[in-house]
Sequence to fold (349 residues):
Amino acid sequence: MAEWTDLRSMNMEELSQCLLENGEKRFRAKQIYEWLHKKLVRTPEEMKNVPAKCREKLILEHPLYGVTEVERYVSKIDGTMKFLFALHDGNMIESVLMKYKHGNSVCISSQAGCRMGCRFCASTLMGLARNLYPSEMLDQIYAIQKATGERVSHVVVMGTGEPFDNFDALSRMIEMLCDSDGLNIGHRNITVSTCGIVPKIYEFADTHPQITLAISLHAPDDALRKTLMPIANRYSMEELMKAARYYVSRTGRRITFEYSLVKDVNDKKEHADKLTALVKGMNCHINLIPVNPVKERGYQQSEQNNVAAFMHMLKQQHIQVTVRREMGRDISAACGQLRKRYKERSEEE
Ligand code: SAH
Fold:
């Protein structure tokens, strides 16, 4: 028995099995799968060549879960769009569409809320509500493609939640996203970001060697990382870097380290030097993110010249480094703020 029994989370094999058990022909599974994952219908009634009786019976046992748009913000600067979506049980999540020269990228959430507790992050302030189903991760992409008419070519799992804390649903989502009977997105166009759940990094390298991995580092040593990220109490920097090296050697791919620059906390020369020593010789790329201030947290963004200086120090040591381009600055709310604002508003009412 599969772990998820809602219609949009079922893969072709499960769908075929279920239809055969209901006395239907095998070709129906492909028809239904394509309506859901290629033609991106929002309701069962839109599956025109599937008899109503078959649809109704199926939906009784396998509800159609997905996302419903509640709010949308569009950047006047670069067209970036932020979406607030409702889930069937009233939980809220958010997703972002970014338009680049190389294509359209959607940033999706993997959980409603998060339990990792990173000190600078808004997504974790209210804890974890629940894991998302594969359908709910997929449907953030489907709903955006359908609503905007923009073909999505890249997916980054960097929204609310820790994807490796919802590993099985993440794996199923990737499998279905890359399916030629679905959106057929290239494995290489998918990036997953983790705060560093070490055993899952090994598992991910083994099971998804074509997916790009980003690790949220944010500090160059254990002591400082512990003050920013509780996960650092669980896994040491040494264990984390060993896992990162395993990913690189196992997959032959470059790994990304995210490093959010927080004023006077991790943006000094000593930090750049330690970071250099940590990653020297490794096939990696460092993505510097001027921290997005979250009002409850009290951390400030590093000044622009400090960001530039930090980047320069790494470059001088031949470390590949970029500063993350801020997209949709005018609609910017740091990760998880849309959802949080919505929740606060509805509690006031
Ligand atoms: N849980 C995953 C993915 C979600 S967060 C992870 O930790 O990687 C995506 C990235 O945004 C992470 O690198 C996270 O540390 C970073 N982030 C979260 N809040 C931020 C903030 N206020 N400013 C800058 N980066 C932030």
